[in-house]
Amino acid sequence: MKSGLFLRNLALLGGYALILAGALWLSLQLRFDFQPSPYLDRFFPSLLLLWAVCLPCLWFFGQFRSLLSFFSLPDAQRIVFATGTAHLILLVVWYVAGVDLAPPRAVILLNFLLSSLGLGALRLSLRLIRERSRRFPQGSSARRRLGIYGAGTAGAALVEEFLAHPNLKMDVAAIFDDDERRNGSSLHGIPVLGGLSVLRQRAAELGLDELILATPNRDPQTTRTIIQQCRRLKLPVRTIPTLHHLMAGQLHLDRIKPVELEDLLARESIELEAPATRKWIEGKKVVVTGAGGTIGAELARQVWACHPKSLILIERSEPALFEIEQELKSGGCGREVTAVVADVGDPLRLPELLQQHQPDLILHAAAHKHVPLMEQQPGEALANNARKTIDLAQTAAWHGVREFVMISTDKAINPTNVMGASKRVAEIGLQLLQKENPAMKFISVRFGNVLGSSGSVIPTFRRQIAAGGPVTVTHPEVTRYFMSVAEAVGLVLSAGRLGKGGEIFVLDMGEPVKIEAMARQLIELSGFEPGREIEIRYTGLRPGEKLYEELSHNEEVTEKTEHPKIWRLRPQNGLTASLKNLEGSIREIIAEAAKGNTAGAKRKIKELVPEYTPWLG
Questions:
Q1: How far is Cα 15 from Cα 263, in angstroms, rounded to an integer?
Q2: Per-residue confidence at 366, pLDDT binned at 50, 70, 90?
Q3: Is the pLDDT of residue 176 over 60?
Q4: What are the structural domains of the chain?
Q5: What is the reported pTM?
Q6: Which residues are designated catalytic?
């Protein structure tokens, strides 16, 4: 390996020396119109001095260490810096020191320009030769022909990635873009042909095997139209990550993924002020409960990206906790992250953990959330979602935690099911704790439905489609608010930053989406025709289920916040209950449910949450 590196550097040295010699000779000839000149007698002494100065400068600026097949604009800049530095040194030697070998100043300027161009051309030629040999290897098998939709920054980065990885056997045949100003141009040698109409007309002619959407800030309606067109053309579609996943400013081919339903939200993604959130998190000791769940794991990822002083992950499912711990470790975390297998309701373990780690902030994601299961187990719902939350928050206050953020749900608004009512009881408990602990911040954040989370409708639909159907929808008119996992977690962190204490926050999630329409879109994305190839079957509303969800109830005042898409909710009337009475009522409900009296437990829940409408069938 060392001998190979030596030969490579020796070849580069010879190439650079020849370029510098040619540039100096041509500079002298151009200066004197290719006529004999006394300065030509000084060519060889001047060349030796040029080599003695310029070649070390090229070494210093990394032109012997650079990878030949990745010559780019930064490399060209470094060549200019190297030759510029060398010629400044030569000016000092020739004119300040009064050396007789000095050529005319015009020759020095010409030589700087020609040597920079020559060295850049040499490096560019080496890259082109290397790329061509890799792009068209001898005996290569059939290659896939790709189309890219989007000629912006993301599209350009994607083309560069494919050109740099010819071993993938994928060739970009054409680029499509809706911006007419780009039509007829080219990007890295690939023609930009036009928009959707051109794709429709020329997909077969170009022999495309696949289309990649390279528009991370795309409009959902436009995306839907492109996908529908590609389905008619029987052209598979994949997409690059959204802007939430491109915050690092890099694009990698392993991040390209099939188009999923979260790419087709009936609104644009909501940006949730990552720099401000990072400033809020940075340097804090943070606890995430329920860290193995969909939301808890994403909280762990985003909190870790904000550089906390320490991150403690609490989860009672050992496999789920191990998975997120290993993911963070593979991303570079060390002893700053601690994974703890524990139940947040353990009255002995949790105080010890808080005493040991002394966190500044707790993000509480641990909860039961499955509506039909909790409907039959009100005691378990109240114990886990309400009592354990209140106990954890109270213990946190005793141990000097400054901020506590709980994840709630839009089902807590005028609840018709036990799960929503249990979350509403937890919200009330945090507001009562706020009155008793004004120095600490207790905040609740209400979510809509999170796309793709465990137990949600999307994984269920996917399993049903994979089995050949039918896809089951409870009612043709049922609607829900939806948000992506990234938006949900961004809301938690933004709300924690904006909260003063005692508030409930909710995200403006746009218009609610019909579940039936979502099922049809997912069937189409899977390559089937709804109603013909995959049946949609209506099963009727389940116990405790609503036709539609709400964002606030009549007893809450909606206020704007600094963020245009986040609302603050405050109760119109002050809370009259005491925390002690609330805890006593929760114990009574759990005891009643333990006797098997589900209806009686639900009636007692209604005493705590008057807006709750229990299902007693």
A1: 51
A2: very high
A3: yes
A4: 2-135 (no CATH), 144-259 (3.40.50.720), 274-456+482-528+550-608 (3.40.50.720)
A5: 0.65
A6: 411
